[in-house]
Amino acid sequence: MQTIHRNPNVMWREETDALAQVQEALDRGDEVEETGTSVLFSGGTMISLNYLGTEIWKLCDGRTMDGIVAELLPQFEVDEAVLREDVQAFLDELAAKGFISYAE
Amino acid sequence: MQSNMVLEAPLTINWAINNSCNFACRHCYSRGDTHEELPRDVLLACLEKVAKAGVFSVNFGGGEPLLHPGLLEIARHASGLGLRVSMNSNGWLMDREMAAALRDAGFTKVGISIDSHVHEVHDRFRGVAGSHGRAVAALGHLAEAGITTSISTVICRINHTAIDDLVAFARDQGVGQLNFHNFKCSGLGLSHKDELDLSPEEWKEFYRGALAAREREKGLDISLDDPIIALLGARDAGSLVKGSVCGKLSLNIKANGDMTPCGFIPVVIGNIVRDDLKQVWRDSAVLEKMRNKKPTGKCSGCSKYEDCLGGCSARALALTGDLNSPDPHCWA
């Protein structure tokens, strides 16, 4: 079974102010896709992740894809197939940048 | 993936832990700085403040950091706090034992300043005979200790047409990264500007060549930290922000604890001993101005402004008195 792991050399942190703003926006029903709530740095490359991306990133602790989707599904009002597709695309992008790895 | 977010603390601190130096570089930005240094206990406590604020990495500079008697203890403390520790050095005091001690203290990367592939040119620029040979030897000692190495080269009148030679030299030394630092008119750099700085057209030619080399050279990371390369349709790879990273991703701390937006902008915005880092980072009017530059002069109406954001604020401040002015190196 394939598991997903954060690269331990990646330095990262959540931005608490941005996270608070996103939570307020979510309460109002506003879009938060464009707001970064975490920043990751590795090998000279920096990326910022939005709320969903950050939640996915935090779950890359050796879980399987099924495990990540099962954890996220109750938090986001979205069809499971759509969520699975989004998560997979996001993880593939992180893997291409070397921020995560897949293991069997 | 998002871009252009405002962070609540810097990712990197460039920390000049001392101003003592055994060299006499023609372009030194800090030679005129105070020699007041933070006491050991205060410095260690400040590192804790920095780590607590969420800073990822600290790059020690100076002065020459190897002249600081507490460097190893400071680095051990910083790396123990989870900070990634690196350093820039002239390499003169590096030997096999020191390189191993740096590794054991937590240094993951050390940059050595080498400004020319020609011994005599480097030695004359750095003011010390034999400095080129010692710098090259330092790279070997560091590599042997397992520390990632890079070469830092200040581009100016002595080397701007030698891109291919500098690249070949870096490859010969086996470094993974070659940093082409743009010349800043700060400290002695301002005093020697007429002797060392290039014309805007010469900068354009240099960056054309450097970007071509960056594209061509595989396995050697050629870093260009100058936002003005946006004029050629390029930017420093991997950056979260447009324009200069100073005050957006990084901050400078001087030997006495004073915080400045970068090492080349002599505007004190706080002191790490006295002030809260996150509060200064959030509330500084100077940083606010740097993050929200407005096009003036020839920047107004420039199609590249959105990416370049006026270029290097340090150069603009040094030569015009206003960090919001167009970068004097701009050739547009």
Helix amount of chain A, in percent?
Answer: 40-55%
The largest beta-sheet of chain A arranges its strands as 5-1-6
Give the distance, in angstroms, between the N- and C-terminal Cα atoms of chain A.
6 Å
Portion in beta strands of chain A = 25-35%
The radius of gyration of chain B is: 19 Å
Secondary structure: helix percent of chain B: 25-40%
Which consecutive residue ranges of chain A, at least 5 long each, have pLDDT under 50? none
Uncertain ranges of chain B: none
Indicate the structural class of chain A: alpha+beta
Q: Order of SSEs of chain A, N→C?
A: EEHEEHEHHE
Rounded mean pLDDT of chain B is 93
Sheet with the most strands, sense and barrel status of chain A: 3 strands, antiparallel
Question: What is the tally of helical segments of chain B?
Answer: 13
Strand order of the largest sheet of chain B: 7-6-5-4-3-2-1-8-9-10
- Total of helices of chain A: 4
- General shape of chain B: globular
Cα-based radius of gyration of chain A, to the nearest Å? 14 Å
User: What structural class is derived from the secondary structure elements of chain B?
Assistant: alpha/beta
Which descriptor suits the 3D outline of chain A? Answer: globular
Give the total of beta strands of chain A: 6
